[in-house]
Each structure stands twice: as C-alpha cells, then as structure tokens.
Amino acid sequence: MRVVLGVTGGIAAYKAAHVLRGLRERGHAVRVVPTEAALRFVGAPTWEALSGEPVSTTVFEGVENVEHVRIGHEADLVVVAPATADLLARARGGMADDLLTATLLTATCPVVVAPAMHTEMWFNAATVDNVAALRARGWTVIEPASGRLTGADTGPGRLPEPDDIIRTALAATGRSAAPGPQDSPSAHGPLAGAAVVVSAGGTREPLDPVRFLGNRSSGKQGAALVAAAAAAGAQATLIAANVDSGVLAELPAAVAVEQVNTTAELEAACAAHASHADVIIMAAAVADYRPAAAAEHKMKKSGDDLTIALVENPDILRGLVELRDAGRARTGQLLVGFAAETGSHDGSAESLAQAKLLRKGCDLLVFNDVSGDRAFGRDDNAVVVYRAGTGGAEEVTRSEGSKADVSKDVIAAVAAERSR
C-alpha cells in the first residue's frame, strides 16, 4: 500500500518517525510530506533515510511530474501526524499553499489526522468547528491523548502513541495493523477482542527541575502483565510511568504504549481509557503524595533543615470505580488493583491488602509482599489474587515464580472473573 505521511510543525514531530518506521515494517511504502515548519523540528535527511524517498515541502519541486497532484492521486492512505491547529484550519478552508495541503486536496483515499496541540487550542471554538467540518467530509480525526504537554501543563492535546495512530489509520483502509502473525494476539485466547489497559512503573512528583519524589518500581511486572494480556488475545495498552526503555523494548509489537510521568498524568490517561476499556489493571506504583509546590529553580543547600509541604494525590483506582459505578465507563468493565504491602502495626501485609480490596471497591486485587527487598526491580515475584466476596476478601489464586509466569496466572484469573 502507498501511504503519504504528512508531518506538521509541532514538538511531537519526532514521534512521526516511529509512525513511519512502523508503517514500513508492515510492508507499506511511505512518502513523507512535511511542512516547512516541520523541518525545523526534524530535518529532511531523517525522513529521506527512514522512508527511502525524496522529501519536499513546496509545489515548485518536481514540477515536471506534477507532484502536487500525483502524490495525492497515487496514495492509498494519507496520515497527518502530528496535525497542528494551523493545519486543521488550512485543510478545512481548502488552502493549497504547500505540498502537503495540495496533496490533501487531491487525495481521494482515506485521510487520517492525529492532532497535537495545547489543551486550550484543542478546545478553542475554531478548532472544534474545524474538526467537525473535516469529520463531516469523511476524514478520521483521532482524539488527542491526555497527559504531560510541552510545558508544565497536563491535559488533552498529546499526540497519540505511534502504534495507536497506525492501528487507526490502517483500520480506515480495512487492513490489519499487526506487523505479522508472530506479533498478533491470539484470536482464540481467553481475552480475545477485549480492550485491556495496564499501568506500570512508578509515578514521579517534581520537587524542583532536577529532583522528584518517587518509588522503586521498575515496571517489569506491569510490562509482563500487558504482554500476557496480548498473548491471551487482548487489544493491549500499557500506560508506562517512568518504565525503563529496555523493559519497553521487549514488549510485543502488538502492545500500544503511552508514557506518563506524574500521578496527575496517569490519572488523566486512565480516565481517557475508561470509556472503552474492558479491563483496567492498575499495576503502577502511584505516589500517595506530591509537593504542594515545585520549586522553579534547583534548590540549594542553606545550612538549615528543609521542610517540604506535601498534599495528597488523587486515588486513581477509586476514581475509576466511581466512574464505572456512575455509568461513565464501559459497561461490565473489570477493575484490578495492586497492593504492594510491607505490614505495620495496623496489621500484616496480607490483611492490609484484603482491607484495601474492600475499601477501593475493585473487582480483583493482586497482593505482593514487598518487605525485605522483595519484588521491586527483580525478575521474580509472589502474589495472591483476591476478589470481593460476601464475607470479605476471597482468595482466587496464588502464584510464585518469574514475573512472566506470575502474569499468566493473573491474566487467567482476570479472564475467569470476566466469564463468571
């Protein structure tokens, strides 16, 4: 298939390189058509090297081949990622003042647009009208993701992850987004067709530009869980909070990855998935508190003790339960919590986990004892899965071994719970 990848001038332009690579790995020929502004973020040599095709922004190159008409005519699919507010406005108005907008005017194939901009720009009445008009013409305009934006703000406006863009774009042509049979979820697995979202890693709360409050979670267990979900046939998404790149690199290609940093970003990402996810597994280690205010500049030693005021973070799992109970989430959604406990004067680690299950209101809870340097950063784990029963917490299963083996048992428990 012949794909045109339009790239506009936003900070997210670097992610388009991953879209390009993913499309080529799936066997498609890709011609990149950037705007002049896009080349200020990622240069033409990068696009030419990754695509194997020439790059131009103007209608005055390749005139003998009538490029401004030919590229759109020959395309089987046009994807624009990122699409800025400016591009949406120019496309809605039918402008053709560069090669990309001319290509959009001449294309008769499916057009898929992935916007990326600041939250206020996305919600501005002009952008809302432009998006509605383009959708009315038959274009697919993907909703932007929620999370950390270019500055300190958080909210809708992030470019969706490359795999999500590829999946949506190829679906618009009736084609599969899977790279190959070896990476495809099982069509007959216990979670076949289910949308499963897993959070992993540990959130970080900034103290100043170089320091943060965090935890020791590596994200290995969450990554193993999302891989097991994909192997069981699920459409699997990982929301990764500061997960090591080496862990992410080992994920199956069928798993979509969204990266977040703070608890607020994780909360926004989970809420965005609540409307369509069949299962959400909250394996991430979420910071309970954050600094009341982060210092604008790096804090220096003063010779005095330092006192930092902390405020409580939102309870993401409980918030998801409330969304579901209020009818604002997918019907029949299964919510799975995690409890990493050490025990205290309030009770044993296991009793604290059981109390957490009942307090949160989730369907299942995975408990692991992290005292004595267990679980965090290791390749093995030992867990107990509980469900809420009429008499309190009921044990579903116990599992011990590698995190991959433990994940298979947890996913089996999830599948069994969905079929009850």
Helical coverage, percent range: 25-40%
Q: What is the beta-strand fraction?
A: 15-25%
Give a count of the beta strands, DSSP E runs of length 2 or more: 19
- Quaternary class: single chain
Alpha carbon gap, first and last residue: 43 Å
Task: Quickly count the helices.
Answer: 14
CATH-scheme architecture of the largest domain: 3-Layer(aba) Sandwich
Integer-rounded radius of gyration: 23 Å
Under CATH, the topology of the largest domain is which? Rossmann fold
- Largest beta sheet: what is the strand line-up? 12-11-8-13-16-17-18-19
The domain tally reads: 2
Unreliable stretches covering 5 or more consecutive residues: 180-184
Tell the overall outline: globular
The average pLDDT score comes to 88
In the CATH hierarchy, what is the superfamily of the largest domain? CoaB-like
Name of the level-1 CATH class of the largest domain: Alpha Beta
Instruction: Report the major sheet.
Output: 8 strands, mixed
Which structural class matches the secondary elements? alpha/beta
General description of the model:
The chain has two domains: 171 residues, Rossmann fold; 225 residues, 3-Layer(aba) Sandwich (Rossmann fold). The protein is globular. It is of the alpha/beta class. The protein starts with a strand and ends with a helix. About 1% of the residues have low confidence. Helices cover 33% and strands 25% of the residues. An eight-stranded mixed sheet has the order 12-11-8-13-16-17-18-19, with helices on both faces. Strands 2-1-3-4-5 form a five-stranded parallel sheet, with helices on both faces.
